[in-house]
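Box 3.1 — From sequence to structure: Trafficking protein particle complex subunit 11 domain-containing protein
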Amino acid sequence: MNSYPTEFLVQLAPVMYVAGLNAQPPQPPPSDARPTPSSQPPAKQDPFTVLSLRLRDALTAQRKVAIWQPEKAKSFQAVFVEKDVSFPPRKAVRPEDPQYNAAHSPLSPLTPSSPLYPDGIIAPIWIRKHTTLLPSVFVLFTRIYESLVKPGEDDRDREAEERRHDAELSAEIAHRKKSTSERGIKLTVVLMASRRMLDDPTLDGRLTYIRRQSGLDPRAALFVLSPVSQAEIGDFVRSLQDALWEPALEYYTNHSKRVRRKRNRHSQVSYQLPISPMASTGVARPLRPEGWTVRYEFKMACFAEFRGEDQVALKHYQDAYAALLIMFGSTAILPPRTKRWAEAKIVKLYLYNNEHSLALSYQNSHMRKFADFSRGWGIGEETFEFWSWLARQHRVFAELLEQGTRSTLKIPSPYPPQAPSPAMLAAQSLEASQMGLEAMRVLGVNPNQALQHPGFYYYMAARCTERRRERFLGALEFEGHQTNSPGFANERKVDHLAIVLELYTRSYEIFRKWGPQNVQSPGRLTLWIAYRIAHTYYESGKFDMAVRFFERIAKTYRRESWGSLLQPLLTQWYACAQQLGDVELSVKLLIEMLGHGANASEDDPDALQDDLLAVLKSTVPSATDEPLVVDLSEAKAFLNASVVFWDSEVDVGTQAPFQLTLSSQSNVSLSSIPFTSLAIHFSTDALPLIVRHPQDQEDPDAEIPAVHRIDVGQIIVAPTPSESREVEGALRWGPGTSIVFTGSVSSSFPTQLSISKLLLTIKENSWWIEVPLIPTTVQLENALIAPRWLCSVDPLRFIPIRREDHSAVKVHWRRHEVQVAISLDGPAYIGEEFPIEIRIVNEDDRELDVVLDVLLQPTEIDEAVNYVEIDDQRSSSLLKAIACGVLAPGSSVVKKLYLTNAGTPGERVIDISVQSHSTVQPPTPVSPNTPTSFSASTLVDRTETLRTIMVSAVSPVKIEHAVVYKRVTGSQPGLADLATFEPGTRDEGAAVEAIVTSTISVVAPSGLVIESLRFHRKNNARAEVIGCSVDQEDLSGEWLSGDELCEKCRISVVPDERHPEQPTSSPGEYEIVWRRLLSDGSHGLRSTTRLPLPSLIPPSDGLIALIDAPTVAHLHAPIPLRLTVRNRHPTRTATVTVQLEADSSADAFVVAGLRHGRVPLLLPGQEESMTWNLIPVECGVVKLPRFKVLDRRNAMQVTNVQAVGVGPGQSSAVEGQAEGEEVETVDVRWDGRPEWAQDEEGHDVQLVKGSDGYALILP
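Predicted structure (token representation):
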């Protein structure tokens, strides 16, 4: 922005004149005074001098002149002046002149002595006048007189002296007040006094006198300040600026109103264009109304900017710019090639408001409109003036953005946002949404419509400057008729390349700063700018600097394979090397250029090799005793090398055919380059194969075939490498030709064979050059084309190889001929050691050391622990390294594997691995370079044979249980029986007798031989086995599939009082010792199966009635019938009544006993028994009398409910239950309950057999 006046660029702020703070120099000591000893402290500085210095520092630090200042703080631009400073005159004549009223400002275009006369618009001196010569407020610092208190002095004399000094100070202030009032400037006086003066009671009166005599305003016009600390100085300065801010704004507002009135007057005056003779006489034409409009709009914009009203200033600047466009649109108003003002404040004010799109749009619109004007003026793209102007626009915009980014301007990033963290989300929610909207507009839009960082516009300025130089160099050819042009003469003095280099350098630095931080390599455009810098150095003749940039740029271009960018770079790099006389660098670059085909075409494919031969024949290398190695590992090689192996795997000692193809570029010829040899290096430590070019068959005119085949024979990779083999073959390539090296390779030990490197040697005169090449598996430009195998030269035929690993072959030992046979008999039984026979047969011609591994796969069955066992090894998962011995050819070995199954039936998976090792010692490779490069595991001749078997495991027997529960009819212990409270005593009152019926079935398909069947008791505190039927039987013998056995167990169970639904653990188990019944009649191994009894959950009772009567009776012989009412409810009492019902059984018996009565109150856990004597009078099966047992406890509750809820004369559904709830009556002779069952709704219920009892009456 140096081409623009500073006044047009800086941010305007209210101006404050500060007078009276000039520090007084210290008074020198008298010449005859004695020197002060160093031990004495220096003289104390005047506190008012310190105060003045601190005030100057504080006022200066409030605001500094800068281009970018978007902050809206109430701060002034302080200008330090003398007390008697004068203001510039308003008009060009003195006020006493008679022409004063008709005169104009010295800077007006109407004043002949003005620099703008006659048609100037605005000049930087006008802004300088309002920023340095005319303030908005005037602050005067001065000392108030303080008289020294002397002993004996009269107070009236002291007051008179103070009044005289106050009158002089008032006169001085009044004189200053007169000059500021004429200009509308606010005057403020700050009186500096000591702290002693602040406590003087006469200070208020003196201040009032000074204000009245000097005519100061009553508000914010007089302050008193004493020497204070630096922090208090800052508070005072801020309060002073706050107090003077409104008067300063009023000052600039009055200026704006005055200018607006003038603009309105000029807009109403019609303007007559002067006649042509006036122009012919050389008389200047006055400024047109359009120019006055621009002038007044610009002034109002500046005054609005002084006030901090950026939006108002922006509107006035836009109006001034619009009027200026009208003036530039007419060559009659503004002739071309005149020095006119252009400015960029509109763009800056847009950026203040974060309106990036509008700022960029206005900048582009400005350049587009004035570009159209320039074409109309004859200053189009073909002139250097146009590109000079365009470059200046881009540079000014870039410098403005750079100024802003150093402060508060934030440019939306074009990169996708990262995943925000919670802290970032919280921070972003506090920011304004304007930046987010701008960032969203950037996505998916034209880059020309998105604001970018300053580096981009510096780059555009550099490109325009390059165009400027091109147009200027083109104009030099027609220098004759432009010699007298001032613009052309000035252009001769411009160092274009220095400007271009400066712009590119600044752009490069900013691009590196604004690039993504997580990317290691610079961006593409950053490297391109670096290339333009190198090109500029090359044009400037600084070839060494250009070479440095080329070296750094080429590394990234090579690594990322940017061939189109490398070609021009290598060409200019080679030109720099020629200018520097670096022959080694020239040779390296020429060889690399052969790969890219730089400076070569199909019409002249020999151009590059001719240049290389010219260098080799005309120069001498710096070192002749060692080769010059040209590393093309990251660059594109001039020969495309591809390797294809016919087989992917071969055995040791078997030849693996391969083909190595070297192809040249289609537009580059290598027929004249003196290749002397080609060394083919394999991936092993074998010595390379050398292919030498025959020197006696040099025929430069011989035609090079498109495909030439060279047979290199058989190559053997042995443990002790011999001398390297050499073959002859023509090593010459024409444009687009190929040489195919065919051969085969074998190895005497396992390895992976591939061609790791090729080494081409060039020798010419004293030059010895080696070019290493790395074969590639797939060419980048032909990634979709499969590698090919040459099968015929005449006619030319290829076979595509559609295999990924075509560039290498694996060499392994010949597989051992080992047969593994596995035999097993039927399914395995749970609990049995199931035998599995493994037979291993050596059908190879070598002795083999065999090792066996067995892996039992885990099952998904819970609590299933299975084992495998061989010999003396047993494991639940893996049996490792079971030796089977050394097997001679044709011999075999048998191993017995035992599988033990547990848990539930299912499938068991076993993996069997047979590993055979050859007993012959393998050859040990010895390399002259790395003798221990082969590991021992790679050289072991080993073969692994895998087998997987799936064994079905079934249960040999199954058991089914049926459980019924009977109530105990014995006497119950009393509630007060202390023996029931002793620890370890069973609650016999709650005991239930469980009868478990177990059905044992044989399900083994082959049948079993039962050796024993026993029952083992496991009594506990809650369950005790009373008896079991298996104790008295011998069940040994052969059992076939489907045979069954039924056994019964009687168990006394005491349920848990707190948790009656909790199951009782099994009190015993059946143990069956059995053997498998084999098909030949023999028996297998002894096995044991344990079948536990089920867990018991006895049902619980509440209130129950039990009837006990004999089953058989004799006629006329009395029999007893006992009714026991038992209350097993844990908390409730029972009120029970018993009634003997009259039914058909009344004629069969004569009953002696209670007919209807009430049972005493039954507490929880208590029972009551009653007995009747029955005399049968009929024979046969006779039904016993029925008893009706009612629980009156519920009947009493029902009655109460009826009394409360039912009125007189109404019926209720519960009347039938008013007598009580019927108690269940059970005949203990037929008592038997299962555990639980479910009703139709899915609820758990207990099933109870009927309560009707019968008896057989005999005669």
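Summary of the box: The chain has a mean pLDDT of 81.
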